[in-house]
Specification:
about 425 residues, Rossmann fold, 2 domains, seven-stranded parallel beta sheet, six-stranded parallel beta sheet, 19 helices
């Protein structure tokens, strides 16, 4: 069958589609990966066939203006919160309106959607697999009659928020309901001769890479699969210093790709973090870009700074990791059984940090009251208390219990045939 995968142009989100793309390819299916032009190099460096569509999104221009308010709105939200007074209809509507205008419609710009629909009409995919924010994939599938599913590499928080809004508004008369996401998608589908269906928001099914205990159970059709770490488009080279066991406990410090690629502010001052860890009997390996390193006044003797290193090579040698809470970093640490100190400072990073602490696999650094002293104390706890190593081991085993991407391909084939019977003939 023909499978079109799509994700908006940001490496942190593209990386999550690569292992399943290759699983489908090695099973003999035709695979294409569509994104904005800025992502073409990342796709081709993964060995996959890229389809550039539309113009690049301009999130970097949005974030310093309206995006600042968007970040603050979500910064301290407790994503496990279910109290009605904290999840009021006004709050849910405001979240939906803000995300639709300042995020979803920005990364799925009209030129990308139109070009993706045009390509899908030309290539006629049997299945469109889309990154959960890349609604352009669902639109292209609806416009061409393809089956479609979401590919989740992070907890399904945003669908949960939208489903909660829909349930609340179902109790209201139709004229009092307000859903900018559905209105935008309905308008976009209408431009391409298709009608809105709720599965445009949540997929006909979802392939979910989150492990048990972290995966959100929303009552949606789901195919669980194992998260397989992918290094991304950067150089996957094992340096000389990673070919020997560390002489003392090694700690990875990383702020992730999203911080590098956008105007998101750092949650902590790296200079202060370095100073606070300088007297610990550990080896700190910090991944910092040239821009980030320029803001550091002094690199301590116990710290090694690298611009890029493959986490899947580094983390097996580490006793702990301190990170920004990003999806790929979190999941790669979990896959290698490394205890985590996670900076739960915005969006789904908060949920992941909460879950890693509740599962005993690390500690959550809350954005409120965050200081380098608190960070240091939590790192020392994680290093010195063996229960965190055991908790991280259990989380790793939970991840390994899920079927690999290769093992779920037959299930995906059956679901595609069910939702588009013509697929079985290709």
């Amino acid at each position: 069958m023909r499978v079109l995968l799509t994700a908006f142009a940001q490496d942190a989100h593209l990386n999550g589609v690569v292992p399943l793309a290759w699983a489908l390819r090695t099973a003999g299916h035709e695979v294409r990966v569509a994104s904005q032009p800025a992502a073409v190099e990342s796709i081709t460096r993964a060995g996959l066939t890229a389809v550039p569509v539309g113009d690049d999104h301009r999130m970097d221009a949005v974030i310093p203006t309206v995006g600042t308010g968007m970040l603050m709105h979500h910064l301290d939200r407790d994503y496990l919160e279910n109290r009605p007074e904290r999840l009021s209809l006004d709050f849910l509507r405001a979240s939906n309106a803000m995300l639709t205008a300042t995020f979803y419609a920005q990364i799925n710009n009209d030129s990308m959607i139109d070009a993706l629909v045009d390509y899908a009409r030309f290539w006629q995919p049997d299945l469109v697999l889309w990154e959960p924010f890349t609604f352009a994939g669902a639109v292209a599938a609806k416009a061409t009659g393809a089956a479609h599913a979401r590919l989740l590499a992070f907890p399904d928080l945003f669908a949960n928020t939208h489903l909660t809004l829909r349930r609340r508004q179902a109790e209201l008369p139709a004229e009092l309901r307000d859903d900018p996401l559905e209105e935008w998608l309905a308008y976009t589908l209408d431009r391409h001769g298709a009608a809105f269906d709720p599965d445009v928001v949540t997929g006909q099914w979802s392939v979910d890479q989150m492990p048990p205990g972290v995966r959100m159970e929303l009552g949606l059709p789901t195919v669980p699969t194992r998260y397989v770490p992918y290094n991304g488009p950067g150089p996957a080279v094992v340096p000389d210093w990673l070919r020997r066991p560390p002489e003392r406990r090694r700690v990875c410090l990383t702020l992730g790709l999203t911080i590098r690629d956008t105007e998101f502010p750092n949650a902590v001052d790296v200079d202060e973090v370095f100073a606070s860890l300088a007297d610990l009997d550990v080896e700190v390996v910090a991944t910092l870009s040239e821009k980030e390193l320029a803001q550091v006044s002094r690199v301590p003797d116990n710290t090694r700074v690298v611009d890029h290193v493959a986490l899947l090579a580094l983390l097996p040698t580490c006793s702990a990791i301190v990170h920004h809470g990003g999806a790929g970093t979190w999941a790669t640490a979990a896959a290698h059984g490394v205890p985590q100190v996670a900076l739960g400072w915005m969006w789904d990073a908060i949920y992941r940090a909460q879950r890693v602490e509740e599962l005993g696999a690390g500690l959550h650094l809350h954005s409120e009251g965050l200081t380098v002293e608190v960070l240091r104390d939590k790192l020392v706890r994680v290093l010195d208390d063996p229960s965190f190593t055991e908790g991280a081991r259990r989380l790793r085993l939970a991840m390994l219990s899920a079927p690999s991407p290769n093992e779920v391909v037959p299930t995906i084939e059956k679901l595609t045939a069910r939702h588009r019977p013509v697929a079985a003939a290709r």
